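Sharing a chain and its predicted structure for anyone who wants a worked example. Both blocks are below, sequence first, tokens second.
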Amino acid sequence: MSKKLRGVIAAIVTPIDAQGEPDFDRFARVAKHLLDNGCDGLNVLGTTGEATSFSLRQRTDLMRKIAASPLPVSRMMVGTGAAAVEDAAALSKLAGELGFAGALLLPPFYYKGVPESGIVRYFDRIADATKASDVPLYLYHFPAQSGVPYTLSLIEKLIKTFGARIAGLKDSSGDMPYARSVVALSKSLDVFPSNEACLLDARKGEFAGCISATANTNAPYCGRAFRDGDEIAHKTAVAIRKLFDGKPLVPGVKALTAHILGDDAIAKLLPPFDALSAADRDAVIDGYRKLTA
């Protein structure tokens, strides 16, 4: 089994080429920049990576290109959730075969109000598909988007059924009492809140780290906060995140990442997203310049 992921993990953006395909060369540039500047790992093809807007072929193509490159897949978890269980099983199986450090799984997200036993059946298929590689399975709790929560009772059922295969949870709910309840539920689960505000608590051992969209834009400050306990860097990281309040997050993060790396093409988005308004883009970039001057 891969070494466990810890620390600052950026939910990396996926640059897109003129044909709407993942732009691997630009992806590799962003990935190297993040790993060289504060990130301990990457969450590939998550929400910020627009995973559910890509086809199964596009997702598997990008995974294969990453694995064939010098990029360290041992420092990456990859989003493999899908509404169709066979798609999720295929993506998770490939993640294990290619050596990714984990498969991050949204629950099946179209039907709402489904029984917890149905989610367990979903995981049963994925666990069976990945038994050869034993790739760690991470739960992706984002009820505002998926509409299907990983409740504490469901997590208990999954641990009881699959044991150590359930390696951890990314919590994008913003509900810190929930995150702490998951930590209290099982010592074996690595819990990653999605907000940089938790990094000093994570450094003390309360959480395994943070998996954040905005780490694309504030990774050096996150890194100093987590590794060194630098409170000023921590405040800067949190302030950069707040620049996106009231704005669409994925377009905003892509726009600021494009600015930081000096490559406007990184800001390109797939439908249904659209670019930030000029006013919002200018406000985010101006705010970033002031915070990092």
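Comments welcome. The chain is about 45% helix and 10% strand.
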